[in-house]
Amino acid sequence: MWKLYDELIEAIPAGIKISDIAQTSRWTFVANNKTIGTAMKFNSSNQPLEQYQSIQLQEAAALIKSWDFQKASFGLATINSFFNEREKVSKNFIPERIHYRDAFDQLLTEPNQKKIGMIGHFPFIDRYPELRKQISIFELEPRKGDYPASACEYLLPQMELVYITGSTLINKTLPRLLELSENATTVLVGSSCPLSVGLFNHGIDTLASTLYEDSLTELQAKKSAGGLPLSKYGHSIMIEKGKGQKI
């Protein structure tokens, strides 16, 4: 079950250190000398992270395997600070398969008759009530019309297209969700998603995440000037698996 996690951790070379850390009520941010990674938090409290300042990226990344989800969020943000970099993405993926747009755009612009499942209640869906009726949403804290997370075991195998929040890496449910979705097209989506080509070997067809190209100091300055959350100052990116591509 840990193979996917170990591959992400082991892909990070020695010698790269964390340069900055920030937290909001919903997100953990980790910076190295090149870029920023982020990951969702499972509660709004801020855990002391000062002890991780300037440690090796690979050491911090190993916290993704922690059952303390605050630490696991920090571990995933660290992993994303390595993988989610424009230059690295351009080098590791087929250029024609890289799209700088939101993963959900296709749902809004193209009719889709497939059975669609969504792991996580993404806020945008509530703005489109007709689209909402077509999607089976599975949620740890279900709202009206959602299925509880436990329904995945029974209903996910029936789906043809499944969107899975990247935060499932934090609570360790992703490997099982991919098993249940093995007959569907799968999209790992959200700012918590690592842009690692190796994830294509685990049953994921599309990676959809966020690239940050400012320092944390610059992001915080933009937040002060613009008033939007830190997480809103990144750039959407979607990467599709190439036909027959295996790394």
From TrEMBL:
Signal sequence segment: none
Q: SUPFAM superfamilies of this UniProt entry?
A: Dhaf3308-like
Every copy of the DUF4213 domain together lies at 5-82
**Gene3D superfamilies linked:** 3.30.390.100, 3.40.50.11590
User: In terms of domain of life, where is this protein from?
Assistant: Bacteria
Please provide an example of a Pfam family that matches this protein in its UniProt record.
DUF4213
**The Putative heavy-metal chelation domain, residue ranges:** 102-228
Q: What is this protein called?
A: Heavy-metal chelation domain-containing protein
Q: What is the lineage of its organism?
A: Bacteria, Bacillati, Bacillota, Bacilli, Lactobacillales
